[in-house]
Amino acid sequence: MRVRYNGKYISIYGRTKQECYEKLKVIADKVEQEKFLAKLAGMTATPIVQSVIVQAPTAPTVKAYTLQEWFDEWLVSYKGNLRANSINGYKAFFKHFTELRDKQLTDVTSAMLAKVLNEKPLCRQAKDGMKSMLKQMFSAAHNDKLIDSNPTLYLPRPKATPPVRSRNALTVEQEQRFIDTALADIDKYEPLLICLLQGVRKGEMLALRPNDLDFERNALRIDESYDEQNPTDLLTKNADSNRTMPMFELTRKILSKYVTAEPSKRIYEKFYSTKLHKALKELQAKANLPKFTVHELRHTFITRCHEKKIDEMIVQKWVGHQIGSRMTKAVYTHISNDAEREFIELLNGKTA
Fold first, then answer.
1. Contact predicate 247/200, CB 8 Å
2. What values do phi and psi take at 127, rounded to 5?
3. Whole-angstrom Cα distance, residue 320 to residue 265?
4. What is the C-alpha separation between 253 and 145, in angstroms, rounded?
5. Residues 13-34: pLDDT tens digits?
6. Burial class (CB in 10 A: 0-12, 13-18, 19+), 216
7. Which pLDDT tens digit goes with each residue over 79-115?
């Protein structure tokens, strides 16, 4: 606390309020003694200490955040070490809360958040992700004393809304039409065909370089993923995504032209997202196929593998799916090369 002494403020420190008040009493007693002595001497009372003003300690000012301001602050302070793709995922989730973005953080209630979550036509997984984000945001705000209570503490699990269109794989007949149409104009549709033939993710396909192609071993190395919005971030989705998978026969024929290409230059660097999606739309029309996404080409690859009874561990190894248990991982790393070659032949069509 502070007192005014001789027209100036001085600070009084103590570990407790009681200790501060005892020190204050010493100063007050001194003032009274000096006044008394001055009166005895017949002097005009001009106290050394003119007045004593006690000021209670003030609480630090807490910034008032809107929901948008706190989301931006939370991303930087609590999620700043995440990859750009993960940050973009949180931003995509937050876009669903547009109607609440200008609300004061202290005014946001559980009912408001539940209403947004339940009304959005999203799948269970997306809504669970949004709820998890909210719980992290408001827990951090509560810990930082920006809010007195956490509105997500008893936030119920949101109701799932069935997606407008479920993700499907192409049928065998549709897949063949896709392949035939793509081969007829390979320069335009080649990257899409690679996604289908190898089951790679779009970012993994866009990151391929000639030095990832091992024609002696018929192997394809996947250890990068390209995103044009974050071109310097080449990390794959997770550690299991870094892999070496077989290069199937048709893939080998298509990619053989890159043997003499510059080893470190991306093969499909001219295929930015807009061009790629436009090519997919054209191919669907030419082949009389239903609408589907680039990622569903990967889904089709995995479906064909399952239909041909290819071992689940082999499929996970090829497509870079994370394997949950240590025991499972230990088993799949010891699958024999002969068994894997048999499964490769199944996809190459040499055996029944």
1. no
2. -70, -35
3. 23
4. 62
5. 666 666 666 777 777 777 677 7
6. exposed
7. 888 888 788 889 999 999 999 999 999 999 999 999 9
